[in-house]
Design a protein that fits this description.
single chain, alpha/beta, 7-stranded parallel sheet, 6-stranded mixed sheet, 38 helices, about 45% helix, elongated
């Protein structure tokens, strides 16, 4: 006989009312269940009668008591898996459970179960380790009913594990932290009522007209607002419409919501401008009069607040100088979108107030987790605190198909472990290692297995970035959910394609592509194959014909070439003979002409010619010069018997004759002189003159000796007489050179007998005159003969035209043959290519290939026709379906009908960790198979609860060496809990909750240590660390590798990291194509003065960054980057640790860029804090570290809240750059700092001088420079 579980409704009204409230709430968010209660008055009783069936059933029982009071009472949970009444109305992850009271006191002999709450919980078909499976009947207790065979026994009470007691103990500190945070918000929060606003576009500031009880309160609020991220709230945030007062903890009367997130109060004298009441507008004055205005000495002022960085970047893009209508329209649209988000009236307060609603959600999550209400992970409370409680997979699941085939082994291993883990898997992804790529692949793999995935992250950017990496596949239906706000959209541009109707449109695109690929493309492909084969055959047949014609043409051209080559050979031989004869005649004619010129004395003697016979008479005449005693060096026999030398001899004879001929008159004159002298010697005229002169000189000296008979005069007289005597006794000769031509030329030197010599010369002159006469006669005759002979020589040039004609024929045929041969080769190449198109070998016979292809084509056509016949009915449907899916605005139209049901049918849902749970339930979503939380290290454990409780399995992806959680919900928040504690300590604030003791107490709830602890203690089967990074150039990677024990490696498939930037100083190349990292040391400026920071700003670094951006923009323009170029604009980012510095950098850019932030080649540079940059990357990143106290690096600095001291911030900032990283920071602030670095794979941490190692490397590699040197580089 089966045991029975007896149940009974409570006799207390409030318990039954709670049951009704539970049931109404469930039906509201699960409207399908309403069908079970149509026409039913008492829904609770009806539900319980359905829940507890009349038939025997299996029930899973658990002890959910929050206190260990088993001897008195137990809070019992009853869950019936796959309940036959309710399972059809619930999703596969959900089941209903009833929690109630079991009185275990000893005097109760036969207890019963009293239902107290109805909840939705997980739907495991098997009992958990803390549930007990019991098969029993169910019976409602009535009066006078005997309770026998009761399953509620003492043994059962003893056996049930006290899971909720343990969970409650574990969560006690979490609840305590939320209470602490509530108290902190109340303690720290101050707010001002505003009644109007104005926007200052020039300064990117919002001017709020605020009102306070008095001027002192205004000043107090201004000081309280300093360095705080502010927000606008609607009036519901406060219990009073004028005084800022947060509601009590249990007051849910008014929903609190942020209307617009802002930045910080501006700095300067005009931060708070007091305004007299009379200066208010009439409308504003009326507001004060009509309302219950509580302030008797009210103070009014304009408060200036910087807008947040997101809106600042959007509004800075407005081109105020443009006159283009479209640009002006877009500008106004951006401005209107910003203005409409600002409520006309409300409160301004800290961003911390935004956590008020979040605290309530987190408290509710803790309550639910204690008893598994709305919790779909039955072991969450176990492994969340003890990773050893997470089940390990029996084996690592293999993947048969990768959507992304580029995953490296570690990424593939991570995906496999994510698929295999039963409860929990942890993935550590350092910067640039592709953890988002792993998430995208895992989501597709889960979708392929039919599992539903909840994707969550603390940061909206991270969610949308992960979504954008997922390939659009039909098996994936993704939706991005976020509560709409009057402030900026939480969903980024990347995520908007997954929100609302755009998500449906994206799914339609995937379906259309899938329909095409699976049903239409195969038929289209087969048809295309047939068309291609036909085309191939047509081309092949033409090609074959062309090849055959080319072969014939080659043969014909070759034959013609041989024929004309023979003709050319004959014509050349003929021409060569004629040319030889022509050359001989021409040579003879030239010799005769030269000889004629020589004989005419008009040209030189021709050499190496054979003298004509008629010229021998001339030689014979000239040889007769010997009769006149002329010295002739040759004999007649020399001339006669040496034909080769005859011209030389004749030339020599003519030379002798020419000298004699021109001097015949001279000889005649000398003969006359000799005749005059007679028989004596010949005295020359010169001698006669000298004798006369000597006689005169002697007479003068004789007259002088009568006066002066000195030895000198006497000696001179004597020497003159001796000279005179010698002249009279001597005789002169004939000195003309022509006498040297005679054999007896000596007799002409001194002439003793002039008469005899005269007679001899006369005889000789007669001979010479005869020769002259004979030469003239013979020369005239010979020249006439030579001219006649010259005229008779035929010197016509041989005709070369025949040779040229044949040469042209042969050359033309050769070129034609070459062209035809090239054409033939090209055709053969085409033949080979054509064969390869159908996978034939290059040497395959072309004709055979044609025949084989024709047979294949015939087979394909038969298959195609059969396929068309089979698909005749479905083909039009598929085509029409695809056309409908691709119709413009089809998704928008369908969304109107599907928006209420589409999200519930999505298998990928993306939300932020801090999203309201109602966002899921209102979309018809409750439980999921898997939750993947990205950037998990950036979320506190409390923020993780909502997504973790929604899925059976959790996958945590993050990096506990990057940014820790922030202490505020605001997206512009910048402070961690530790930062806020340090600020309080530095300012010496008393009476504060932000103490070192509270930080140590709640440290695990506000740092990334939970993920670190889980990851380091998890078995290898449940964790994976990615170490191959793809983003950064290796030079940049080295900067952050010190934070990972140098475990990061660069991908084996390097990317192109060309950055196109060059900075050259006077002596050094700071940035070149092979230098991807530069640190500009801003310890001192160009004059050697310390670059001090002031109120978290550093003007020097801002100016340097602005100058660097101007130079980078100029170089990018030269490299072809630009808005309208094919390359587009180069992406450049600026990162700092403080919002105030971001503002100063913007102003510095405007001052050097004509008042504009927009550049032509690099566009609008995103200037943001490091917190907003996590998860992003850009080719070029510039970092401003800001802080500089001006002291030496060896100065001992106490712990500070300066973000530069936190290695997580440095790690994130420096790992955003892909190709070029430029850091502007004071070396003196960092070099000797100790960084508390957690150990990689074991508990604890160690202090390391990380920055000292970094600077030593920078020094070695010459990647650090001074401000002065960098300024030189900017100006070059």
């Amino acid at each position: 006989m089966s045991a029975t579980l007896f149940w009974k409704l409570s006799n207390q009204d409030h318990v039954n009312q709670r049951l009704k409230k539970n049931l109404d709430h469930i039906i509201k968010f699960k409207p399908e269940l309403a069908k079970l209660f149509e026409g039913v008055e008492d829904k609770v009783d009806h539900f319980l009668n359905l829940f507890f069936p009349d038939l025997e059933a299996t029930v899973y029982i658990a002890n959910l008591s929050l206190e260990d009071l088993s001897s008195q009472k137990i809070q019992l949970s009853l869950r019936i898996p796959t309940h036959y009444e309710f399972s059809n109305y619930l999703d596969v992850h959900s089941s209903l459970a009833v929690i109630g009271y079991w009185d275990t006191r000893s005097y109760i002999k036969s207890p019963w179960f009293i239902p107290e709450r109805i909840i939705i919980t997980y739907n495991d078909e098997q009992p958990t380790e803390y549930e007990r499976e019991i098969c029993c009947k169910f019976e409602k207790v009535t009066e006078n009913k005997t309770l026998t065979n009761n399953i509620l026994t003492k043994q059962l009470a003893h056996d049930l594990p006290k899971i909720s007691v343990l969970t409650s103990q574990r969560l006690e500190n979490w609840s305590s932290f939320l209470q602490f945070k509530r108290r902190l918000i109340r303690q720290k929060t101050i707010g001002l009522r505003y009644v109007g606003y104005d926007y200052d576009h020039k300064n990117s500031q919002l001017k709020l007209l605020v009102v306070a009880p008095d001027a002192a309160y205004l000043e107090k609020a201004r000081r309280g607002f300093l360095r705080q991220n502010l927000q606008l709230f609607d009036l519901n945030i406060s219990e009073n419409d004028w005084k800022f007062a947060l509601p009590e903890l249990d007051n849910d009367k008014k929903p609190q919501k942020s209307s617009l997130e802002l930045g910080q109060v501006s700095r300067g004298k005009k931060t708070l401008e007091i305004v007299h009441f009379s200066k208010l507008s009439p409308i504003q004055q009326q507001i004060m009069k009509e309302s219950e205005f509580p302030f008797h000495q009210a103070a009014y002022a304009w408060l200036r607040v910087d807008i947040n960085d997101d809106w600042k970047n959007k509004l800075d893009a407005i081109d105020t100088e443009s006159t283009d209508e479209e640009t002006l329209f877009n500008n106004q649209e951006i401005l209107n979108k910003f203005i409409k988000d600002i409520p006309d009236q409300g409160f301004i307060s800290f961003s911390l107030v935004g956590d008020w609603a979040l605290i309530k959600r987190q408290e509710r999550s803790i309550r639910n987790l204690k008893q598994n209400e709305n919790c779909y992970s039955p072991y969450l409370s176990s492994y969340l605190f003890d990773i050893s409680q997470a089940k390990e997979p029996r084996q690592i699941q293999e993947v048969d198909h990768w959507y992304n085939e580029q995953l490296n082994p570690a990424q593939q291993s991570a995906v496999k472990k994510m698929l295999s883990a039963p409860d929990l898997c942890l993935i550590q992804g350092p910067p640039g290692t592709g953890k988002t790529t792993v998430i995208a692949e895992a989501i597709l793999q889960f979708a392929k297995e039919g599992q539903t995935v909840l994707l969550a992250s603390q940061a909206h950017d991270a969610i949308d970035n992960a979504l954008s990496r997922i390939k659009n596949k039909p098996e994936l239906r993704a939706i991005r959910l976020a509560k709409e706000s009057r402030g900026r959209s939480k969903i980024t541009d990347e995520g908007k394609q997954f929100a609302g109707e755009q998500a449906l449109a994206r799914h339609y695109d995937a379906l259309a592509e899938d329909i095409d690929q699976r049903f239409l493309k195969p038929l289209r492909k087969k048809k295309n194959n047939i068309d291609q084969l036909k085309k191939w055959l047509d081309q092949a047949e033409f090609l074959l014909l062309d090849i055959q014609n080319a072969e014939k043409n080659l043969v014909k051209i070759k034959e013609d070439g041989i024929h004309h080559a023979e003709l050319l050979k004959f014509e050349k031989q003929k021409y060569d003979q004629e040319s030889q004869q022509y050359d001989q005649k021409l040579h003879l004619k030239q010799e005769l002409i030269q000889l004629s010129s020589f004989l005419k004395k008009s040209g030189p003697a021709p050499l190496n010619i054979q003298l004509p016979q008629e010229t021998h008479a001339l030689a014979e005449i000239l040889f007769s010069m010997s009769l006149a005693n002329v010295n002739v060096p040759f004999s007649w026999n020399d001339f006669k018997f040496n034909p080769a030398s005859q011209m030389l001899i004749l030339n020599a004879l003519f030379d002798i004759w020419s000298q004699l001929e021109v001097n015949l008159e001279q000889i005649n004159n000398d003969i006359q002189r000799l005749n005059q002298v007679g028989q004596g010697g010949l005295v020359s005229i010169e001698t006669q003159v000298r004798i006369q002169a000597l006689n005169q000189e002697i007479n003068r000296l004789s007259d002088q000796m009568e006066i002066d008979d000195s030895d000198k005069i006497i000696g001179l007289w004597r020497s003159k007489r001796r000279e005179l005597s010698e002249l009279k006794q001597g005789s002169d000769g004939l000195t003309h050179p022509c006498y040297k031509l005679f054999n007896d030329s000596e007799r002409f030197i001194r002439i003793d007998d002039a008469k005899e010599l005269s007679q001899s010369l006369s005889r000789r002159i007669d001979v010479l005159k005869r020769i002259e006469r004979e030469l003239a006669e013979n020369l005239s005759r010979i020249l006439i003969g030579l001219n006649n002979k010259i005229d008779r020589i035929d010197s016509s040039v041989p005709n070369y035209e025949s040779v040229k004609h044949e040469q042209a024929q042969v050359e033309a045929l050769r070129e034609q043959y070459q062209l035809q041969q090239n054409h033939y080769r090209a055709l053969n190449d085409k033949r080979v290519e054509h064969l390869q198109l159908q996978n034939f070998a290059s040497g395959f016979d072309f004709v055979s290939a044609l025949n084989a292809t024709k047979q294949h084509l015939q087979t394909l056509e038969i298959e195609f026709n059969n396929l068309c016949e089979r698909n005749q009915a479905w083909q039009p449907v598929f085509e029409q379906w695809k056309a409908i899916l691709q119709e413009k605005d089809q998704a928008n139209q369908d969304w109107e009908q599907l928006q209420d049901i589409y999200p519930a049918n999505c298998n990928l849902v993306a939300i932020s960790c801090n999203e309201r749970e109602q966002t899921l339930t209102e979309a018809g979503l409750d439980g999921f198979d898997v939750v993947i939380i990205d950037e998990v290290s950036k979320a506190t454990p409390l923020e993780l609860l909502l997504p973790l409780m929604r899925a059976r399995k959790a996958i945590l992806v993050g990096d506990h060496r990057q940014l820790p959680p922030l202490f505020q919900e605001s997206q512009d928040a910048s402070n961690t809990f530790e930062d806020m504690v340090n600020e309080e300590m530095e300012e010496g604030t008393s009476d504060t909750l932000l103490t070192k003791e509270n930080f140590e107490r709640y440290e695990k709830l506000v740092t990334a240590s939970l993920f670190k602890e889980l990851f380091e203690k998890a078995p290898e089967s449940l964790r994976e660390r990615l170490t191959v990074q793809f983003r950064m150039h290796p030079q940049i990677m080295k900067m952050i590798n010190c934070f990972y024990d140098n475990q990061l490696t660069y991908t084996e498939e390097p990317k192109d990291h060309q950055h196109f930037v060059t900075f050259n100083s006077k002596y050094n190349n700071l940035v070149t194509s092979d230098k991807h990292l530069l640190w500009v040391d801003t310890s001192y400026d160009e004059k050697g003065m310390a670059c001090l920071d002031e109120d978290r700003t550093n003007i020097t670094e801002a100016k340097l960054i602005a100058q660097a951006l101007v130079k980078i923009n100029e170089q990018m323009r030269q490299q072809g980057f630009g808005e309208k170029s094919a390359k587009g604009q180069q992406k450049v980012g600026v990162v700092s640790f403080y919002q105030a510095q971001c503002r100063v950098i913007r102003e510095a850019i405007k001052s050097v860029n004509n008042g504009r932030l927009l550049f032509d080649a690099i566009g609008l540079v995103e200037i943001n804090t490091v917190i907003r940059y996590q998860g992003k990357e850009k080719p070029i990143i510039l970092i401003s570290l800001v802080r500089n106290d001006g002291k030496e690096k060896t100065y001992h600095r106490r712990g500070s809240n300066a973000n530069i001291a936190r290695f997580e911030f440095i790690n994130v900032a420096m790992s955003r750059a892909q190709d070029l990283l430029m850091v502007f920071g004071a070396r003196n602030m960092l070099e000797m700092r100790d960084v508390i670095l957690p150990n990689m794979d074991k508990d604890g941490s160690s202090a390391k001088k990380v920055y000292k190692d970094i600077f030593e490397r920078l020094d070695r590699e010459a990647r650090i420079c001074s401000v002065k040197e960098f300024m030189q580089a900017c100006s070059n």
